[in-house]
């Protein structure tokens, strides 16, 4: 069963369109935009420059009624994309007055490593929870001419609805984020090696943990500025384990390909009840979660999960 794209229900509408030509691209994008323009809803197109030109030609005089940005400017990393979406929502929500915000976007997949692709795929899934109560419509475009088949297949699992032309139908392959995020590590991640640096910590060890983080990063060739980012991130993750967990944990450092990895675990063994995979994002509205949001901003990638009954915060930092 399919419905017209202009029909919206309260809350988030997170949809994807798989297209293989400019005509198919426009057949989904233009009705999505027009549905917003009819209601005077704020509309943002975060698409590559070539497709901005394509949209402008198709929309004609109406092209100036929407906002445009490059996908990279709308977030080069998943946390930046969350912050940008949250910021656009906050800035425009007052003028909506019962309407919706609409965002047309194309995730940047070219040149991504397998780990980066996994992180962006997780973001697509997480959006369904993080913005679930917001009156926002997001249409993600997957162009098979430039997006690999494996990524296209995954989009059907991370988006509740699919769009073809101006029609919407449920995705029969959709997986709820709480299920999609199940497991200690993101796809493609390796377990902790047998000989990492680090060890157990308590509140009295936090200063030495920060010193060890800085020294390890510098030995591995990380610039001082980025090494200090790691220090701040490690401090927030370990302090979180001390203040909100069992008061004790373990911290491990190792390198993998071109990344420095730090894993902080809360050794309470409570099955991760105190923290979930969506903790710290999007930017929290109150003090709770601000530390983990800082961690997500400072690192290139962060994954939160549960392993052997312990909460795991794994942070990745590019060495060069």
Summarize the topology:
Blueprint: E1 3-4, E2 13-19, H1 22-38, E3 43-46, H2 49-59, E4 67-69, H3 78-96, E5 101-105, H4 114-130, E6 136-143, H5 149-158, E7 161-164, E8 167-170, H6 177-180, E9 197-202, H7 206-219, H8 224-244, E10 248-256, E11 259-266, H9 290-298, E12 301-307, E13 310-318
Parallel strand pairs: 2-6, 2-7, 3-4, 3-5, 5-6
Antiparallel strand pairs: 1-8, 7-8, 9-10, 10-11, 11-13, 12-13
Helix pairs in contact: 1-2, 4-5, 7-8, 8-9
Q: What this model shows, in words?
A:
The chain is of the alpha/beta class. It folds into 2 domains: 3-180, Rossmann fold; 197-318, 2-Layer Sandwich (Heat Shock Protein 90). It has 9 helices and 13 strands. The strands form 2 sheets. It has an 8-stranded mixed beta sheet with strand order 1-8-7-2-6-5-3-4, sandwiched between helices. A 5-stranded antiparallel beta sheet has the order 9-10-11-13-12, with helices on one face. Strand 5, helix 4 (114-130) and strand 6 (136-143) form a beta-alpha-beta unit. Helix 4 runs parallel beside helix 5, helix 7 runs antiparallel to helix 8 (224-244) and helix 8 (224-244) packs antiparallel against helix 9 (290-298). The chain is elongated and about 65 Å long. The chain starts with a strand and ends with a strand.
């Amino acid at each position: 069963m399919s419905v017209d794209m202009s029909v919206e229900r309260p809350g988030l509408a997170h949809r994807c369109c798989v297209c293989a030509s400019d005509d198919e691209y426009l057949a989904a994008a233009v009705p999505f935009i027009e549905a917003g323009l009819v209601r005077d809803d704020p509309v943002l197109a975060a698409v590559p420059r070539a497709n901005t030109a394509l949209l402008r030609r198709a929309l004609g005089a109406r092209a100036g009624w929407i906002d445009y940005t490059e996908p990279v400017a709308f977030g080069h990393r998943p946390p930046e994309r969350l912050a940008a979406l949250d910021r656009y929502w906050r800035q425009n929500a007052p003028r909506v007055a019962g309407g919706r915000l609409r965002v047309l976007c194309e995730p940047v997949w070219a040149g991504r490593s397998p780990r980066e692709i996994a992180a962006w795929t997780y973001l697509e899934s997480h959006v369904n929870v993080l913005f679930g109560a917001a009156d926002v419509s997001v249409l993600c475009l997957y162009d098979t001419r430039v997006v690999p088949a494996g990524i296209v297949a995954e989009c059907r699992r991370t988006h509740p609805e699919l769009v073809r032309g101006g029609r919407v139908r449920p995705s029969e392959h959709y997986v709820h984020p709480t299920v999609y995020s199940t497991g200690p590590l993101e796809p493609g991640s390796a377990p902790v090696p047998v000989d990492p640096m680090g060890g157990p910590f308590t509140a009295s060890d936090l200063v030495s943990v920060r010193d060890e983080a800085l020294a390890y990063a510098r030995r591995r060739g990380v610039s001082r500025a980025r090494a200090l980012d790691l220090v701040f991130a490690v401090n927030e993750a370990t302090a979180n384990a001390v203040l909100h967990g069992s008061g004790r944990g373990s911290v491990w450092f190792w390198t993998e390909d071109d990344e420095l990895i730090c894993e902080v675990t809360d050794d309470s063994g409570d099955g991760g009840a105190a923290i979930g995979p969506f903790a710290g994002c999007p930017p929290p509205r109150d003090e709770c979660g601000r530390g983990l949001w800082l961690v997500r901003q400072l690192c290139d990638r962060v994954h939160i999960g549960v392993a052997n009954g312990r909460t795991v915060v794994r942070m990745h930092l590019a060495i060069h």
